[in-house]
């Protein structure tokens, strides 16, 4: 009986995924990985970031709070980022454990002692972010490189972020994939 229920559930999930792929479609097959978006860290040093996009504005907000309170937890920083008045959706935060995380394909994200995902409660908005407190001894530069190398701006089938921002402040790492503006959020190609 349990085996039959598992098979039925599997078939139902596969059918739902197939309908999602059919409804949303995929844009050009060359749109994989993090190409096409911007990564603030590669463009300019953290001190020179111009806060003119969703990701950069949220990073500057995070940076100010992290520098003001070096003992702040990843959870309190993620909650503060989601309290920003520019957030135009029902926000949520959720602790995460080391391993597979949404937005990074099959890469296991390791080397942090506290991680918190933040984003919209509804998954049709191209926005996902994380705040990590790194383990003692974790190479922050290597950790950030792992995030950037494995980030997929089109992690959520029907949506695609326009930018990726990944920066560190002390032992804290801020990561977000988002539209550049909430006023003109990109629409998926059908």
Provide a brief overview of the structure:
The protein is of the alpha+beta class and 190 residues long. It contains 5 helices and 8 strands. A hairpin with a 7-residue loop joins strand 5 (112-120) and strand 6 (128-134).
What do you see in this structure?
The chain has 190 residues and is an alpha+beta fold. The protein has one domain. It has five helices and eight strands, in the order αβαααβββββαββ. The chain has a six-stranded mixed sheet, sandwiched between helices. A two-stranded antiparallel sheet has the order 3-4. Strand 7 (163-169) and strand 8 form a beta hairpin. Helix 3 (54-68) packs across helix 4.
Write the layout of secondary structure elements.
Elements lengths: L1 H23 L13 E2 H4 L10 H15 L5 H9 L8 E6 L2 E2 L7 E2 L2 E9 L7 E7 L5 H11 L12 E7 L2 E7 L12
Parallel strand pairs: 1-7
Antiparallel strand pairs: 2-5, 3-4, 5-6, 6-8, 7-8
Q: Main sheet: which strands, in order across? A: 1-7-8-6-5-2
* Main beta sheet: 6 strands, mixed
Mean pLDDT over all positions: 80
Q: Count of DSSP helices?
A: 5
What is the SS-derived class? alpha+beta
Low-confidence stretches: 18-44
The SSE string, one letter per element, is HEHHHEEEEEHEE
Number of domains as seen in the coordinates: 1
Give the N-to-C terminal Cα separation: 40 Å
> So what's the overall shape?
globular
Structural descriptors:
190 residues, alpha+beta, single chain, 6-stranded mixed beta sheet, 5 helices, two-stranded antiparallel sheet, 8 strands, 22% strand
